[in-house]
Design a protein that fits this description.
The complex is a heterotetramer, with two copies of chain A (163 residues) and two copies of chain B (82 residues). Chain A is of the alpha+beta class and 163 residues long. Helices cover 25% and strands 33% of the residues of chain A. Chain A is globular and about 50 Å long. Classes of the chains: A alpha+beta (163), B alpha+beta (82). Chains A and C meet through helix 1, strand 2, strand 3 and helix 3 of A and helix 1, strand 2, strand 3 and helix 3 of C.
Chain lengths: 163, 82, 163, 82
């Protein structure tokens, strides 16, 4: 099978993320393994970057509101998929989905899924790379709304020119 | 003069109070020059300009980039999707 | 939250594996990340262990037929979950599901899912460990049926006493 | 004598032609002794006994294990789930 036949899905949507459907769409006859990452809205959150947060550092989230620069985000999602294929040539299908809008705790907000013939071909590493890169270069932002007020979550990564 | 369309997102959009801005700019204006102009005309956006990320036609662009004719310029904070 | 409140699902079932449902059942208010592995029936398979197989080594699979020593398999799935929690203490929810019966190409046959507050806490490694261990110690077997005949797929791992 | 219940799976089940077998065995019989008895009484299963995995009451058991009263003994090839 030619790589050009390998399915690549990228989507920015206000709809629910349907894992069953997305997995089916990146499963080929030759596929035997899939690694899927999903992120969800946390209702109880430690301060960003503070994994040893004390209980006193925890706070409640009512919801997150996501926005995207949609056409650029779609192009950058495609770039993330291209980077994954360049690094792990056994990858067959790739799905990259970001849900936007007002999202409440426990709701899946993002999905990265990679398929391959076997599990020892980089599918786990590829999915991990995909979510890491999405959080660096795909123009999407979220505002957290909590009982104490609202604030924009800002990333730290400054993309390089042409990246 | 070049025509450019600015798109603001997240904190930039909130501080500017607008989503888009159409501008005519000198043909040799750089991203740095555009930032300086915004800073002067919209001082309320200054706090966001320190760590702003800029795209030209949906590609990340450094301060020294010269803005082409009819460019679509995105201005936003470091991304926080996921 | 006490670990005793962390959900652990293990199941041997003839029903379809519903990723959306399983993910929801291991998502807590404190959960922000999930890593999910699924395996599917390959319709075109290279010979086992031969990732550099020539095209001539490929063969077609009509279906796989799975059977399990169900009560022991459930106990061993629980053991895999316990081992995961002992190795990665940030893991919140765990789901381990094996579908059995006659399963056709592209059908998900197995799922391992782990959740945690953040993605850098071992969720990917935990899911990878889970599928590796399932293939070592959980008593499930599959017979491959192809146009050329049928044969039992046999593993290689000999479990140690008490493992 | 101890009563034991044998459960066969996969190739073992197919070669034996049965899923279960109830046996009375000496109280000091080991798994190795049980294998020897099966090998003598059911020679068709010999090919599978070389790499058989054995469980006693759903825990993996080595050849030297003594079989307890009313044991549930699983006999199967190395697992291949997933």
């Amino acid at each position: 099978m030619q790589p050009s036949n390998f399915p690549t899905i990228f989507s920015i949507t206000e709809d629910e993320i349907d894992l069953n459907d997305l997995l089916a769409r990146i499963t080929l006859t030759s596929t035997g393994a899939a690694a899927i990452f999903t992120g969800m809205v946390r209702g109880e959150t430690s301060r960003r970057g503070s994994t040893q947060a004390n209980a006193g550092d925890e706070h409640q989230t009512e919801y997150l509101e996501y926005e995207a620069y949609i056409p650029m985000a779609e192009e950058k999602m495609k770039q993330v998929a291209d980077e994954i294929r360049a690094k792990w040539d056994a990858i067959e299908g790739i799905a990259i989905v970001q849900r936007i809008g007002k999202l409440y705790p426990k709701t899946p907000t993002v999905l990265i899924a990679c398929t391959a013939a076997h599990r020892d071909t980089g599918v786990f590493e590829a999915a991990r790379y995909g979510i890491d890169r999405l959080k660096e270069i795909v123009p999407i932002w979220k505002k957290e709304v909590s009982p104490g007020g609202e604030f924009w979550v800002e990333g730290e990564y400054m993309p390089k020119a042409g990246e | 003069m070049n025509h450019v369309k600015l798109l603001f997102f997240a904190t930039l959009r909130e501080r500017m109070g607008i989503k888009t801005l159409d501008l005519d700019v000198p043909a040799d204006l750089t991203i740095q020059g555009l930032k300086d102009r915004l800073s002067a005309e919209y001082p309320k956006v200054n706090a966001s300009l320190k760590s702003v990320v800029v795209s030209i036609n949906r590609e990340f662009a450094p301060d020294e980039s010269v803005i082409p004719q009819n460019a679509e310029i995105g201005m936003f904070p470091p991304v926080s999707g996921g």
